[in-house]
Amino acid sequence: MKKLIIIGISVLTFISSYINSKTHNLKIPNQVVSELQESIKRGGMVYEDMCNTCHLPNGLGVSKVYPPLANSDYLREKQIESIKAIKYGLSGQITVNGNSYNGTMTTLGLSDQEVADVMNYINNNWGNSIENFVTAKKVSEL
Known about the structure:
CATH superfamily: Cytochrome c-like domain
Helix content: 55-70%
Radius of gyration: 20 Å
Number of helices: 7
Strand order of the largest sheet: 1-2
CATH topology: Cytochrome Bc1 Complex, Chain D, domain 2
Number of strands: 2
CATH architecture: Orthogonal Bundle
CATH class: Mainly Alpha
Distance between the termini: 57 Å
Strand content: 5-15%
């Protein structure tokens, strides 16, 4: 019995090491990284022009009025709804980080590319690290 346990642990260790070596060597193509960086840069400009007033430069929003984007559970868990909110506006009650918000976000009139860029900016700032490269194509499909 003891011998079987030792063999089992050895096999599991080998399998785990093999999987880690294969996934650790995966690399994101430089072109994709570069495209994301450019999108984030453009998204920062869109954010400054269109979102800054309500959600503030630090993404913290205004308590009980405008929800935070910084460290936002809503943003992490509801990417599609977040994209739709930017593209089409949003009204009705939502819960962000345990707090309810029941306001209206009007349609901003942004292009699909601008929506993608601002989502990439928001997804990668203020403690957000959301691995979802939003493209204009993805936005247009919504």
